[in-house]
Amino acid sequence: MTFLTLTSLRKQYGSVAALDGIDLSVTAGSRTAIVGPSGCGKTTLLRLVAGFDAPDEGGIVFAGQQLADARSQVPAHKRGIGIVAQDGCLFPHLTIRQNIGFGLEAEASVKNARIAQLMDMVGLDPAMLARKPDQLSGGQQQRVALARALARKPRLMLLDEPFSALDTGLRAATRKAVTDVLTAAGITTLLVTHDQGEALAFADQVAVMRAGKFAQVGSPREVYSRPVDVATAAFLGEAIVLPAEVADGRAQSPLGVLPVDDIAYRGKAEIMLRPEQITVAQNGGDGVFATVAEINFCGPISDVRITLGDAFTFRLDIPSRETLSAGDRVTIGVAGAAHLFR
Amino acid sequence: MTSTTETRITIAPRPRLPAASSWTLTIAVVVALLALLPLGFVLWATVVTGWETALQLIFRSRVGDLLVNTVLLVVLTIPICAVLGVSLAWLTERSDLPGARFWSWLCVTPLAVPAFVHSYAWIGLWPGFNGLPAGVAISVVAYFPFLYLPLSAAFRLLDPALEDQAASLGLAPFAVFRRVVLPQLRLALCGGALLVGLHLLAEYGLFAMIRFDTFTTAIIDQFQSTYNGVAAYMLALVLVLCCFVLLGLEASLRGRSRYARLGPGVARRPKIARLGKWKYVALLLPAVTAAFALGVPVLTLSRWLIAGGAGVWRLDEVGLALWQTLAICLIGGLATTAAAVPIAWLSVRRPTRASRFLEGCYYLASSMPGVVVALALVTITVRAMLPLYQSVATIVLAYVVMFLPRALVSLRASIAQVPVEIEQAAASLGRSPGNALLATTIRLAAPGAAAGVALSSLGIMNELTASQMLAPNGTRTLAMAFWALTGEIDYAGAAPYAVLMVAFSLPLTFLLHHQSKKIAGR
Predict the structure, then answer these.
(1) Of A167, A151, A93, A204, which is closest to residue B168 (Cα–Cα)?
(2) pLDDT of residue A181
(3) How far is Cα B259 from Cα A91, in angstroms, rounded to an integer?
(4) Which residue from A minimizes the CA distance to B161?
(5) Which of B169, B186, B257 has the CB atom closest to A132's CB atom?
(6) ipTM of this complex > 0.90?
(7) Contact at 8 Å (CB) between B286 and B88?
(8) pLDDT tens-digit series, residues B71-90
């Protein structure tokens, strides 16, 4: 069931098109991530859905109601859409209790019970309720912001890079906590992030955004393994792109003859492999011969540059091993099919 | 364990304050003691008077009447100023009001017109206008910029993301304003309201001209007519207590909360509200305000100037007053700024409990009305140091006491902008601490010092109460000459003096406006 539909949304800031025709469908209860480099327009998109800005063209339909079109729009406070901003955006003049209860309209006892329940939900100590936001750590502020947004039982939750201001360790933990809470509550979620790992880990549906447009929309596995173009492939992770001669589902490439995921195509093309498909063996085995041109030790992994026969080079992270050094001959093996860019 | 013994050995005795800061501290303490002289004097006078006489002089119907007048004045003027200030600041900062920049300048310009010139302008147009309604109306136009300035700066600093967030939590626009915007304006509202309140208590000329009695006018009447020392001292005591009530109210309302943005990064530009068809209705507010706050003075002054013709410009007298005013402004401004340097440096570079306490003393001393400062200095010099009575040194001291915080604010801001590392680099290159300070921080803070001189000079130029009581014989500043002439009902003759005061104050007022914008980062 489609819950949120965006149709050809456009938004112009001066001469810059922040959004240049965005279409998206989100099903109820799902998690969608919009991922793209900074400045690609993803925050603008979120602001349009939240109702903080109006689109120049296009429409937003949410739960069967037209929220915005080119002529009119429902104001933010009547949308029932929650948002958690990058820095939490807690009200500095209010205590944690007042922040969480900000959007609640109920008598004191009901309100307090609900606040206590929300604190428990996001895993915070009720002793913090009397504090001011500046007495909390970044991760705690983010949880309060989530509790505050959840208080009104929104049908859609918008997350605007809510984890990017946190330290690496805290980040994964907070993301896990937020995901669990939202899943348990069954709330449809739209996450905006520039971190592809976060997007892939979080979402059921990933939309890769570039210069105000969606380059690709699909499941995390689909966009990762079968990206539409080289730029999308490179944005979502390390990609080894090879020139190839393709026929009958097989590609003749510098890494030998590889199966490809397209049996109909015939002719010259570029194919892509993800680093986890590649094995580097020192003592023979199946595959093509290559030379380690350079090796940088980075702890558990090593960053190696590998040269194939006629000067085709690619780089790769492999688990570190003591015996491997620059100049060694190795055998490169490939598992699974290569992806073909058409 | 070895590590403990080692630690014990390496702990050196805490270094004492470097010579430079102990000297600075000594000077700062001396200045603070001088600044607190008037307050100390009032307390001493009360003790000397004795309880019985004091109570007799305080609990009489005259004091009751004055108190009622003062309370009504403050209670009516401050809320009107606050509503006007918030509305104008919102219109000029957060709406698409046509010509918002222009109106913003006009909202600050009334500060260039001394309060007693506002009063003179109003009774020039409406001679019968007096009493409480006149007092409130003229005070509002003369003092609302004290609220407008900090409020418009606060509007610029608000993080619009908080307003978006409140809307996403289901608040309609007006509720967002009440629950999110207004609480964040609290500091600006409290600070501005206090400033207006202290001016209401201290002002003499404005209220004397419209025959509205306040403690300040009563003290001066007492002083001029009978020189009834004790009665004047007791009125001064009640006035000082009123000031303390205002200071206490402000301190308790202000709270101690931090309102700064929590998150990293730069705030998004605030959203500009579209007034739509209300645009022209909204224009009425700044237009009517400007008409009363600027139009009335311009109208009256030009009327008197035209009526007086060339005859009122007696160049010898006007020229002499102008020269004397500029001289005393410059001496006073320089002295005030110089007196502020030690505490400004200490509070930025060596912020301790002592430096904060000293700073508090300066603010407290400057919140004493000019009439109390003058009364104290007159009495002290007459009784103990007659040669200093009506000397330049005494009047300059009065100005230092009254205007030191103006210089302090500018100096502090610019010293804080000079990285301490530059001072340390100079020290590492062999300069002594005092020398390093002079060669680096003081040099780089010069723009702030200049602004401090300018802002305290602005205060001195338009000061009437203390100048009248303390000025050396033969001195006649613009304000004093203006006042003397209006006292003789020579309104045309007074006009050139008012024009000169306004003309010299205008650039300084714009400096003030510019500075408040810079502090807000635009």
Answers:
(1) A151
(2) 86
(3) 9
(4) A89
(5) B257
(6) no
(7) yes
(8) 999 999 999 999 999 999 99
